[in-house]
Amino acid sequence: MDNAAPLLRAEGLCFGYPQHTxxxxxSVDVGAGATLVLGGEGSGKTTLLRxxxxxxxADAGTLVLAGVSWAQAPQAYQRQVFWQxxxxxxxxxxxxxxxxxxxxxxxxxxxxxxxxxxxxxxxxAPHLGKALHQLSVGSKRKVLMAAALASGAPLxxxxxxxxxxxxxxxxxxxxALGDAARQPGRAxxxxxxxxxxxVPWDEVIALxx
Length: 209
What we know:
The chain is of the alpha/beta class. It contains 6 helices and 9 strands, in the order E-E-E-H-E-E-H-E-H-H-H-E-H-E-E. The strands form 2 sheets. It has a 5-stranded parallel beta sheet with strand order 6-7-8-3-9, sandwiched between helices.
């Protein structure tokens, strides 16, 4: 990355479960562009995304996103973040089209044109009226990613994005990630177990384990 001020600064993060420390005094600066969090099963990739999203509280440490501290203004911090856990069933009763409509007023950078492009790119049109629980794992992931990329959120977090995707969708995703990462003032953080070679990563963060 260049010498520009980071969009996201995480300092001294500590987090763990009983009998298991996940992060101890862990720090990172994330700039605009595409950042890959690389790690195997159990390395803490999903936990890190939840921490960066402000979805779970660290035991210690600070998070500052575009000048907004999570500790001091958690709601203002989270308004700048798109994060949806792909393993959660919280949205399963909703149809994608209904969910998209609820997201539009939440994100000042939301783009209907981008959403339409992602719906086409992921071939989602036949599924827009179905409840998410009726979709395959891959189709549900495509819905989440279409929303994430269309949100324009300054910090956009994606967990294992290619799980269940067909090859054309993987190719489209990598192209779409590259386009989104070029948007000024936007950081995409993607957790995955291997490098997606077609994505122009600005930073790769390798987690141990």
